[in-house]
Records
---
Amino acid sequence: MIADVLADTTSRMQRAVEAAKEDFSTVRTGRANPQMFQKVLVDYYGTPTPLAQLASLANPEARSLIVTPYDKSALKAIEQAIRDMPNLGANPSNDGNIVRVTMPELTAERRKEYVKLVKSKGEDAKVHVRGIRRKAKDELDALKSELGEDEIARGEKELDALTRQHVDLIDDAVKRKEAELLEV
């Protein structure tokens, strides 16, 4: 029973860490990266649609990206969605067939802002992991009537170790992203 709770908790915590890493990849560094545009939602015929479903993204140079829409009528909407995306600072231009996105050079001040943003997202992810821990602890407490207190205490120690491990993974991902952002 305790093993089931811990296995479920481990998988949920791993998914939370993966989601955090995926979220970090949307914060831009000095180079243009198609992953930065994962969260761009385009208003396509009144429905918010992810950019990846409406266009292909190509990265011909370090600081530029070419967005080729599958439907040319969505060109203006794609351009507007990229321009309106917060924390991107991209400058899209459209030539009638494609949207060219040029990423401006990052200033030291802007890099620091991105580091703060990544740290904030890291804290949110750690709070999520701790929330998963709290639910698992409640599940373990519910098993107290069926199992002995020693077994529950052992399970809680394992749960704490799992939580510590996943929080450390998030911290490592934050440090890697911070180093990537501050790299000139």
---
Amino acid sequence: MTVPHQHRPAHGSGPRSATGPSRRNVLAGLAGLAALPLLAACSTEDPLAAQAGNADGKNYIAGDGSVLEVAAEDRGEPVQFTSTAFSGESVSSADWLGEPVVLNFWYAACAPCRVEAPDLQSLHEEWEPQGVRFVGVNVRDTAGTAEAFERNFGITYPSLEDRGGQVLLAMTDYVPPQAVPTTIVLDRQGRVSARILGVAERSTLKTLIATIVDEPADPADEQA
């Protein structure tokens, strides 16, 4: 099934506006995730917001699989954040400059996260030799719960512990993760190039990765 693509500039090519999401709002949304299906605030026009009001007992909001692609000239500034992997290693987005990166927001009890996990691991194995980095961002779990999920699904790429919302807050300046799972692709300059809201369909994510891998490593070459 062909997934529709939207092409529009990403948010946040400069400082956050006065109307942007505050750290308090993001953390409040994460605190409520344990009891409510909502991860981040949605507008009344958003179909995810409607689902949040009638979640049928689900403990997540299943995204609709929509894909947002951002043209290179509209990607704004690189995302910036620091975090800690479940391994205890400190991680900075600056460490990834020069490499395409796939960020996947997830948690263990999320049923769609389980659906997409084998495809994410398969794509990681396929693209790692070409320098593509996969990184999970776990918004809810303790280390033990996250590691059990990774063992169960054979996940070998690292995940960041983000119960405090630091990574989520950084990403809301650019492409807000409105549901779990959400997958974001960063280009070699660390800029948001694409987002999949909901389960990352394998062929769709592979195409988005290939687009970034095929782009010139030096942005100046795009103008040549």
---
Amino acid sequence: MTMLVMTGTGTGVGKTITTAAIAALAVAGGQRVAVLKPAQTGVRPDEPGDLQDVVRLAGPDVTTRELRRYPDPLSPEAAARRSGLPSLDPGEIAQAASDLDTAHDLTLIEGAGGLLVRFDRAGASLADVAWSLGSLVIIVAEAGLGTLNATALTAEVAGKRGLTVAGVIIGAWPAEPDLAALSNLEDLPVAAGAPLLGVLPAGIGRSSREDFLAAARAGLSPWFGGEFDPELFAGCASAGK
């Protein structure tokens, strides 16, 4: 059984789409897949959240579980405090992930925002969950200017917490990449201290399930069952520019 902790360099970097893409490839490869979202914020009880997007894109065979939902678009700790709802304990998250792991080939744990976003007043974070599970970490990063510092900080924190970063994925590659984005194809793996395991096109979350699977296969590394080659992609992207 395999567990991967999905973290971002910030909010809105394409973490849910990347999680769905990894899940879609695994399902297509015959694996039993679960996605755990410990805390969903900024969504009311009657609204669809990130897990609904995962199922829409990766298919109904994906098992999903959400532990807490808070209406305010804040960190889980701040949202819990404002709403008066119970906060999350890392042990509860780890137990839920372990339970899913026993019945699935791949379990993806999608955080809220970055690696150190707080779950409770004591400062527990996704880093604590990853450490308790002994899980590899996937960093989802932006493509353009400013991403190198955020990626390097995330990787440095992961290392100091005893975590292993398996790789970095660009969650939303622009249709017209600028010089910074093109340069970052080479520089992001250096910042992460780990290989570039994928580049997913911006906007694929609006695709049909069939087209999404094709984009996931083209945009993710063979490590996930895809066909992405970072050197080939960089060459084609530069030539297109």
---
Amino acid sequence: MKIIYHGHSCIQIEVSGKSLIIDPFLRGNPAAVTKPEDVKTDMVLLTHAHVDHILDAAPIALQNNVPVVANVELAGYMEGQGVQTIGMNIGGTVDFGFAKATMIHAFHSSGITLEDGQKAIYGGMPAGFIIQAEGRTVVHTGDTGLFGDLKMFGELYDIDLAILPIGGHYTMGPEHALIAAKWLGAKQVLPIHYNTFPPIVQDADAFVRALGEEGIRGTVLEYGEALEL
């Protein structure tokens, strides 16, 4: 299993010659090294409706002729952009053949700001995904604060990699992400959702050192870099 970090919260997982991409936000990220038109994938997964998670979902899905997987409200919005969708909800699992995705809850908000900037429409519940493939289990928590049910997920699943936001301000910061990693019992942690905007600037290397002090392996990836599980 190959995990590619495209920046912000955008992760691509490659298994068995197939791939899925989560929360594609490339055009809006000046540091991104991958363009939406260069992405080849078999599924597009969305954790919630904020623009920094859905901006490139429709273009990528359309050019690859693949569905967007999201909560039913967000899936309905994406359908309005001519995209195939698989609507699901918290606790549900979808089997893609090459991987399974279970939608878990997150503590955040989720709304789609309309073009006039004066109104936001409901984007369904924010979520994360537990991805299982090739005997590996990866959790992408989406945008979230720290919450106690992360302990439950750690009891339910043998988590090989936890992909956690550390930016603070909009999500949990490094201190809470460290607790989340311990609660999840993750063997390895990949920090995301930091340094994209001024309010979420963090020292990811310091976070990884703190993980190491707790006996947890952490990895900082630059945009476009990958790790193997």
